[in-house]
Amino acid sequence: MTVSFDIDDVLASGGDERIILDANGLNRYHYGVTPRPLDLALSSTTASTISAPAYEHVRGYFDRLVSATKTQDMSEIYADEMQRLGTEIRTLYGWEAEDVDLVFGASGTDIHLFTALLQAGNSDRPALAITVEGSETGSGVGMAMKGCHFMGLTSGGAQVVAGQPVNLGTGIQSVCVPARTSEGGLRKDSEVEADIRTLVTAAHSEGRKTLLIVTDVSKTGLICPEWSVVERLRSQFGPALEIFVDACQFRLSRESIRAYIAQGYPVAVTGSKFFAGPAFSGLLICPKSVARRWRHHRFPIEIKNYARQAEWPDSWSVSATLPKTANLGLLLRWEAAMFQMKAFSNLSSERLLTCVRGFSDALDARLKGEPHFQKLATRAIRRPTSQHADLWDQSPTIFPLVLCSKDQNRLSVAQTLEIYQNLASGTKVGPAIRLGQAVSFTGMGGFSALRLGLSAPLLVEAATRTDGLSHLIGQGMAALDALVDQIDALSSQTSKPMPRRA
Q1: Number of domains in the chain
Q2: Which of 100, 110, 125, 365 is the most buried (most CB within 10 A)?
C-alpha cells in the first residue's frame, strides 16, 4: 500500500464536520493546520494553531510513515504507532502499563460519547450523567453524554442524525446543574452541592447508575463542581457515585493528573488546546480499577463509525468489533501535541510557576481601574493536589473578560463577536490576535466574555528565552490594547445604549 496524501489534508482528516477546511484553509472554528507565526496566539481555550517547530516535526514523521508503507500495510503501521504513542504518554506521566488503559478518540466529544455508552452499560434502567455548567464545556458534550450522535458526520465518515441516540436501547439521561447565574456570577457551592445531592439521591432510589462529570477546567477556568463538593458527595455516596474528570483543556500538572488516576477517576484530555496540536484529538485515561469493569461492556454496532481497533486496548471486548483501518489525521495531530508535551515536560516547576504567576499578576495590575474590562467571577483552583502550592496548575491560565465601554456599559453578545472577529482576521488590526471564543450569558440583556489563554508553547517560550516573561506579558498587553481600540471604535459608531454592568 502506498500513501500519497498531502500532509495538510491528512491533518484535517479523520474527524467530524468541525474539522473540515474551507476554501481559505480554515475549519469551523477558523483555525487551520499550518503555522501562523505572526499571530498573537492567546486562543488555546478554544483551539490552537500548530507551531512551526511542531509542524516541521510532524512533516518529517509523516514522510517516514509514507516510506514505511513500501514494506508494511498502513493498518499495521497505525497499530504500531498508536501503541508507541500510548507508551510515550505513560512514560511522560510516570505510569506503568498495568496502571492505566488508554482509549484514543477523534475529539474530546468522542471520548464523552464513549464514556456515556460505557456508563450506560447493560443496565435495564437509564443511567444518569450529571454535568455542572454545561455551557462551559464542548458544544456537543451535552448530546454525547446522552449517548447521542453529536454531529452529522462521524470520524469514520458515516452520515448520522445529530441528537439521535447511538444506541436505541435504554441509554443514558444527562442533567446539567448551573454553576453560574445568568449575570455571570458564581452560585454558592452549597447550592450546587444540594442540587447534585438531590439528583443522585433520586437516581439511587430508582436503582440507576450515576455519573458525576467534574470539569477541570471549564471554558472560563472553573473546576465544576468545586473540589470540596466532590469530596463530600463521594464521602456520602461512595463508589455508588462514579466520577469522570473532563480535563479536555489539559491544563494539568503531572502531579494533578496522577492524583486523579490514583483516586480511581477516569480522565478525558485533548491535545489540541493547551498543548497546541491541531484540532481535534481526544484521549481517555482509565485507571485499571475502572478498566476492569468497563472492558467487558457491550457497545452498539454504531461504535464502528467512531473508532478503530488500534485506538482501544486489546483487552477490551469492543476492540475485536472495530475496523482495522487507520486514522492518520488523529495520529498526526497527537504527534504534534506530543512534540509540545515533551518540550513542556522539560521545564522546571519553579520556572513554570514564575511565568504563570508573572503573567497573571501583570494582567491583574493592568485591569485595576481599567473601565473597558470586567473580570468574570472565578474562584481559587482546588484539586486533590491543592496542598502543593508550588504546582503551576494551581494558578489560572485562562482569563475571562467582559468587554465594556468607557462608561462601564457591557457590550452585547453581537458587539463582542464583531470585535472578536475583527481581531482574529487581522484585517483591522494588523497581525491577527486570536483569543478564546466568547462565552455568553443571558443576564443584563445578554453579554459574553472573551478569554485570554496561556498555552504550552507560550510558556515554553517564556521559560526559555532570556526576556521570555516580559515578552509573554507584552503579548497580553498588546491584546488588551487592541481590544480597547476596538471597543472605542465600536462605541463611537453606535448611539444605542448598552446594558449597565452589574
Answers
A1: 2
A2: 110
